[in-house]
Specification:
The chain is of the alpha+beta class and 139 residues long. 35% of the residues lie in helices and 29% in strands. It contains four helices and five strands. The protein has a five-stranded antiparallel beta sheet, with helices on one face. Helix 2 runs antiparallel to helix 4.
Length: 139
């Protein structure tokens, strides 16, 4: 049986920590290691920060977070209805950033990919972005 959690947060930076802690608490029912929970928290943090900083670009919006647990695997979706990503492949390249003046490292997608078992990114200009990540716990 799948277990689900849905969370909607305002697109403000103060909510990034709330999102990562909430997801970690939900995943804790799988009894993850400290490393597994740290990986998940980092990936969620990067995805939510991308939605706030790049998706909404300082404008008001909602970041939608869905978590599903199926057996020993967690599936996390982070979605925004922001400006979208013009070139997803380019955005996923290490060190690429659209905001170099804001001291952004351009490593968000790289961290998500490294810390999770799978990562997909779908985006449409003026419609937003959906990030889907999954991780098996206890492997």
């Amino acid at each position: 049986m799948k277990k689900r959690m849905y969370l909607e947060i305002d697109s403000i930076s103060e909510n990034e920590n709330f999102a990562r802690v909430t997801v970690a608490a939900f995943v804790s029912r799988l009894n993850p290691t400290l490393e597994e929970i740290a990986d998940i928290k980092t990936a969620v943090s990067e995805a939510v920060t991308n939605a706030i900083v790049h998706g909404y670009d300082g404008k008001e919006g909602i970041v939608y977070i869905t978590c599903e647990i199926e057996e020993n695997e967690v599936h996390i979706t982070i979605e925004d209805k922001g400006i979208g990503i013009e070139n997803v492949d380019k955005a996923r390249e290490p060190l690429y950033t659209t905001k170099p003046d804001d001291e952004r490292s351009g490593m968000g997608f790289v961290f998500m990919e490294v810390f999770m078992d799978s990562l997909t990114v779908e985006s449409k200009i003026s419609e937003g972005t959906i990030i889907r990540m999954s991780k098996k716990i206890g492997e």
